[in-house]
Amino acid sequence: MLKVSMMIRLMLLIMMEGALMKAVMGEVYTVGDSNGWSTLVNSSYYTWTSGKKFRVGDTLLFHYRPTNHNVVQVNKENFKSCNITAPLKTYETGNDSFTIRGTGHYFFTCSFPGHCDAGQKIDIRVLKTYSQTTNPHTNVNSSTTPAAHVAPNTTARAPRSVATTTGSNCLLMIIVVVSIIWVAMWDA
């Protein structure tokens, strides 16, 4: 009976840690889902982002054919006007990963001629906090581009500033220690 009780507690502990790990590690989003990063016909990336709430720690995956597309990170003004002459960063591998390291706006487009004007551009808004009823695509007025980390991409330059994730690592350590103490207490 003791072994069955211990197994049940251990299984509950593993399930709780799995849920907490997901919260700590962040979500992984494939931009455009199955369509990937492309010039979508009769669609827009605004529609793709409308149902999502992006948070610090989430990762954006850009999948595309590098002979047909690329990804350029731009500022707000250049995003609105589709001006790709001064990108903040350019990605060209066809399989680029962008991890959100701060709150604010992230603006991306494709620098191939006509692609931005055709709708191949995306505004990722990351809020500090929001309630369950708040739409993350409203009530935000920020023209700054937060620090971020991109990997793997050998053609892009290293980011100028990378925010640390010490808080997430600390939270993970606390979860592990509390879990060990909890299991030990139940065994006593």
TrEMBL record:
Source taxon at top rank: Eukaryota
Might you report a single GO cellular component term?
plasma membrane
Quick check: keyword Metal-binding in the entry? yes
Where does the record locate the signal sequence feature?
1-26
Question: Sorted alphabetically, which CDD domains does this protein's record hold?
Answer: Phytocyanin (cd04216)
- What keywords would UniProt list here? Glycoprotein, Membrane, Metal-binding, Signal, Transmembrane, Transmembrane helix
Task: List the coiled-coil residues.
Answer: none
Phytocyanin domain mapped to chain residues: 27-128
Quote the InterPro entries the UniProt record gives: Cupredoxin, Phytocyanin-like, Phytocyanin_dom
User: What parts of the sequence cross the membrane?
Assistant: 166-186
Q: What GO molecular functions are on record for this protein?
A: electron transfer activity; metal ion binding
The record's annotation in SUPFAM superfamilies points to: Cupredoxins
Tell me which Pfam families the record gives: Cu_bind_like
UniProt protein name:
Cupredoxin, Blue (Type 1) copper protein, binding site
Organism of this sequence: Artemisia annua
Lineage of source species: Eukaryota, Viridiplantae, Streptophyta, Embryophyta, Tracheophyta
